[in-house]
Amino acid sequence: MSTVTKKKSNTDPSTQKLIKRRVFILALIIDIIAIICIACIFIIRPVLSRSKQKSLSENSTRYAVIYQNGREMMRIDLDNARDNSFVIAGNKGASNTITIKDHDIFFSDASCPHKLCVKQGSASKSPVPVICLPNKLMIIVENSAEGGEYDAIAY
Amino acid sequence: MQSRTKRLAILAVFAALALGIYGLESLIPNPFPIPGIKLGLANIVTLVVLKRFGIREAALVLTVRILLSSLLFGNGVTLLYSAAGGLLCLAIEFAINSFLKGKALFVTAVFGALFHNAGQLIVALFLTKVINVMVYAPYLGISAILTGLFTGLCAYYTLKLLPRIIRED
To answer: The pTM is what?
Structure first.
């Protein structure tokens, strides 16, 4: 600590004060960002998750929609789908294995080292889409009635 | 002339160091199910070069690191993510660093990390064309603040402990 104060004493007190004020302002901005982020995680996400669970339970037919490069490439009727798994190859040698089991759908394997898409788990339980960034793949579980909702945003 | 050669050699060592740190860091498994969360240790080198030399040298080291790392460990997509994140990060770090006249390095690092994640999120938004990736924004924000504090402190102590041969022209 002593070296810090020694260095600061080299600059004149008015600039020191100015810098202190600037650090304070920037720290305040960081705090505000942190508070907004925490608020988003604890307030908005549960609300989203609940509304999704509700809308999924109201309608009996659930569809898993697989997007690649932002385009819908597959729509699977989860309630009537049999258990199986398939590989989707994609951008620059990346490939993902998608498994359907007990009317649920998830990434079961990936060619990338981190396998974040596998860690995200089941697409119907997750409040947010399950995404694989290297292969630009996304699985969303939605009602048939909701179909096309994301297309409006995607294009 | 001699000092120019020395500077070039030091910058090359820093670029190699950044590449090595980046490679080591990619071996650490991500414990969170959210893509993009990482310590950002390579940013320590960027900060150190930015403070010791300047924006031009930092940009040089960063560009070399990004190009080589995507060549060695990744592909075109990772290059896009790294470049967007890294350059945005460097730009804001330069701005904040001159705003604070080189003091309070950890604040600079936090802003750098925040803008790094913002840049990557924007690229993800463009590549996937799906608005839902924004769900990750708050998580990335929190992680950026924490890792930014950490890398900022690392850079601060690295600068203090730099050997004299690097510290002086």
So the answer is: 0.70
